[in-house]
Design a protein that fits this description.
The protein is of the alpha/beta class. The protein is built from 18 helices and 10 strands. The protein has a 10-stranded mixed β-sheet, sandwiched between helices. The N terminus and C terminus are likely disordered.
Length: 459
């Protein structure tokens, strides 16, 4: 017995397709508008697809778009009979009185095309699942990629005139001027010297925190998160933050936050050798941190599609609170690629590109931790450089800001081991430079550095 689902006519809108073509013929100025919405493959009927492509070809060749030239173009392409002849072209022109609704009709055509794409992708997913020639992980990755391709096809161009964009720029400038701290236009990291150079974490930007293993990337990211939380709680509003931990379990992150907030030795916590005073400090720290709107996802083997979906859900859930304000991912190279067969460099390039798209889509900062290769360890000063970013130069290209961490004491026994150098190696919209923080290892805590005594000021 045949499946009734496969026997149905795929979703299509003949009237809308005719409306698009007739509208363009009536008013050729609508063609550039329609081209921002659909492509030739979005048409269901082959004749309409060929006519639309011929119209686009005429425009690309710098020729006027009219019935006479369209007729000649299709005749030269030997497609005139395929589309119903000159009579059908005249019928299209007469089918609409004006081109005013061409964009609306184009949106209907695109919507039907996307639904057809979903049906086609679903059938392919079912076929591959029944064939069982691939592993479950490969099937899921392939299904995600197919759905993402359809979602990409549905993105419409958003072109705005400069006059509107300047108005938006003035509004953003006004918002910055209205802040108490005029040197910070983004989210404060809690570190004075860092904020002075970067003006805080900027919306829609991808910030990379890079270092060799065991230098303190996770601790540094957690300290920034804690600073943002406590600053928000002090002002009466805790920002919503999402932390993806692909390496450490959430309970380990919670312990680190508690030790950092309470200033209780993390080694004593790990061994369970706590005094009554230590326990009270941990309890007090917990009371503060419980009020935070920090969400931790420690699911391993996350793909970018899963990360983006979780972020969108949380952003929607907290819409009344102003939505999601910051995403942190620990760390970039542990994100699962969509296609494991691709070269590793291409996999990392796709991931970094998606991270940048996510930051722009949600309009918030996205912090991604990243590993650097061993090249820095072979240099005399052991300091990492942009070229050391592991596996892909696209990370450097896609990032708006790159912070590289260096602990001199890790490589030079003569140096104090309580110093962290933060190298602002790249800043798309600001200066580069270098700042110093104090590293309180026993508390997993970084503080502002005071040069004369090398001690941290409370944050």
């Amino acid at each position: 017995m045949a499946d009734p689902l496969t026997e149905r006519l795929p979703p299509q809108n003949r009237d809308a397709e005719r409306g698009v073509l007739g509208g363009i013929l009536r008013d050729p100025d609508t063609l550039p508008i329609v081209q921002q919405v659909i492509v030739a493959d979005n048409f269901y009927f082959d004749a309409h697809r060929k006519i639309y492509q011929a119209l686009c070809d005429l425009a690309n060749e710098g020729q006027p778009v009219d019935l006479v030239l369209l007729f000649d173009k299709l005749r030269k392409n030997k497609q005139l009979e395929d589309v119903g002849g000159k009579e059908y072209l005249v019928d299209l022109w007469e089918s609409v009185p004006t081109g005013a609704n061409a964009e609306y009709h184009a949106q209907l055509v695109r919507e039907a095309a996307m639904i057809r794409g979903l049906i086609h992708a679903s059938n392919e997913i079912l076929r591959d699942a029944y064939d069982r020639t691939q592993s479950a992980d490969e099937l899921v990755a392939q299904a995600e990629r197919r759905i993402m391709d359809i979602a990409k096809a549905g993105i419409v161009g958003d072109t705005k005139p400069l006059t509107e964009i300047i108005t938006e720029a003035y509004q953003r400038i006004d918002a910055r001027v209205g802040k108490e701290n005029l040197s910070i236009s983004g989210i404060s990291t809690g570190y004075v010297d860092l904020d002075n150079i970067t003006a805080g974490l900027q919306n829609s930007e991808l910030i990379i925190i890079a270092a060799r293993p065991s230098v303190g990337k996770t601790a540094f990211a957690l300290n920034i998160v804690r600073n943002i939380i406590t600053d928000g709680l002090a002002s009466g509003h805790s920002p919503v933050i999402l932390f993806f931990s692909l390496e450490m379990a959430r309970i380990e992150l919670a312990e680190r936050l508690l030790c950092c907030q309470s200033r209780v030795d993390s080694h004593k916590v790990r061994k369970g050798h706590l005094s009554a005073d230590d326990i009270q400090k941990l309890m007090d720290a917990g009371d503060v941190l419980r009020r935070a709107k920090l969400y931790i996802d420690d699911t391993p083997s996350r793909t970018m599609i899963q990360i983006a979906a979780s972020a969108r859900r949380l952003d929607k859930k907290h819409e009344k609170d102003g939505g999601l304000k910051l995403i942190v991912i620990d760390y970039l190279q542990l994100i699962e690629p969509e296609n494991r067969r691709d070269p590793r460099q291409e996999q990392v390039a796709q991931i970094s590109r998606r991270l940048k798209f996510l930051a722009r889509e949600l309009g918030i900062p996205v912090i991604a931790l990243a590993q650097v290769n061993r090249a820095s360890e072979e240099r005399q000063d052991h300091k990492p450089r942009l070229s050391d970013l592991r596996e892909s130069g696209s990370i450097e290209q896609d990032a708006d800001t790159v912070l590289m961490l260096h602990r001199p004491g890790k490589f030079d026994g003569a140096q104090e081991d309580n110093i962290l150098e933060v190298i602002i190696a790249k800043q798309r919209n600001g200066p580069t430079g270098e700042i110093t923080l104090t590293w309180l290892k026993e508390y997993n805590r970084y503080e502002n550095y005071i040069a004369d005594i090398g001690m941290g000021g409370g944050v």
